[in-house]
Amino acid sequence: MNSSQNIEESEKLVAGKDYPRTYREFVTMFLDDESCREFLYKLRWNDNFICPKCKVPSTPWNQTHKRLVCPSCRHQTTVTVGTIFDKTRTPLTTWLEAAWHITTAKNGMSAKTIEQTLGVSYNTAWTMLQRFRVAMVNTQREKLSGIVEVDETQVGGVDVGGKRGRGSKKSLVVIAIEIHEPKGYGRIRMRYIQNASSDSLINFINDVVDTNSIIHTDGWSGYNKLESLEYDHEVTVMSHSNDQAHVSMPGIHRIAALLKRWILGTHQGSFSQEHLQSYLEEFTFRFNRRLSKNRGLVFRRLLEQAVHTSPVTKKDVTFGYDWEKD
Ligand SMILES: [Zn+2]
User: Fold this and answer.
1) Nearest partner of 149 among 18, 250, 17, judged by Cα
2) How many angstroms does the Cα of residue 68 sit away from the middle of ligand 1?
């Protein structure tokens, strides 16, 4: 078994208390914006501040509580500039509280529930959630490896015909999941695709699965090209009915069921296609950290990624984030 088993990254416990374990601890740790900024500063630079302008490492002058001044070039910055919190007018205490609820609630929270829980406007809640979802994708994340099941499933919409989504009106999602032996699952990746063409499927696999992995699919011709690539392709040809899917693809079947239940439960079954990939990224982030020893670690991880993710503007997310861009 490789080290990536079960969780996305090794989330080693850090000595000392650098993340809250309970809501009570959370409240005590983040009483004001200043304590939030200190926490984010540690996650972003960990005492290795590098000036965003002249790139010289130093200890910035704390001119006021908020401004950080580079001793070399006098450039002024703050801990939030250049992150997903850039130019926000929402207090950091609110941002961190949203992050806490998103990561610690068993199934996360919809924008509507964040609005009600935090007493912010729906628009603010929605914007925070959208930005956090962008931050949930760690661009450094490793590809899946080992035995990987890949298949498509349909989400949302109304059932149109039975032809396994290759041609119907629902949204098509391709899923990859690591299979552990003798049992258990590793990490997942998911992508909203326009169709089940070879291009869509093979591009996805190329992007998210290490070569030399064993890829398990059904007999759909869209996967045929795998034979000529550096993958070990195992095909299970299913009988006429798609009801057999759970027999030969237990991992995919499980994820698809969880995904649909999550969309129905937490999000009342509603999403627009342009935002579907955002939902998929949140689901993936949650699933891949399902075995974290403490939800506070997941909270810490989300904020760590948030301060290492470039600014996301309202324009970036209003009509669906462009996940293809770098
Ligand atoms: Zn500088």
Assistant:
1) 250
2) 10
Determine the distance separating the centroid of ligand 1 and the alpha carbon of 86, expressed in angstroms.
19
Please name the residues in contact with 127: beta carbons below 8 A apart, sequence gap of 6 or more: 314, 317
Residue found under tokens 């498509």: 152
| CA 53 to centroid of ligand 1, rounded, Å | 5
Q: How far is the CA of 250 from the centre of ligand 1 (A)?
A: 54
Q: What share of the chain is helix, strand, coil (3-state, %, to 5)?
A: 40, 15, 45
Q: 50 C-alpha vs ligand 1 centroid, how far in Å?
A: 8
Burial of 145 (0-12, 13-18, 19+ CB in 10 A): middle
Instruction: Please tell me the distance from the alpha carbon of residue 5 to that of residue 197, in angstroms, as a whole number.
Output: 30
Note residues around ion ligand 1 (Cβ under 5 angstroms): 51, 53-54, 70, 72-73, 75
Indicate the pTM of the whole model.
0.88
Counting residues of the chain whose pLDDT is more than 90, the rounded percentage is 72
114, 282 in Cβ contact below 8 A?
no
Amino acid sitting at position 152 = E
Q: Following CA atoms 37, 43, 46, 50 in sequence, which dihedral angle do they give, to the nearest 10 degrees? A: -80
- Could you read off the pLDDT of 104-159 as tens digits, one per residue? 998 999 999 999 999 999 999 999 999 999 999 987 789 999 999 999 999 986 54
Ligand 1: distance of its center to the CA of 138 in Å?
27
Determine the distance separating the centroid of ligand 1 and the alpha carbon of 227, expressed in angstroms: 52
Report whether 214 contacts 146 (CB < 8 A). Answer: yes
Give me ligand 1 centre to Cα 77, in Å.
Answer: 9
In whole angstroms, what is the distance from residue 49 CA to residue 205 CA?
A: 37
The residues, any chain, with a CB within 8 Å of residue 289's CB and separated by 6 or more, are 7, 8, 11, 298, 301
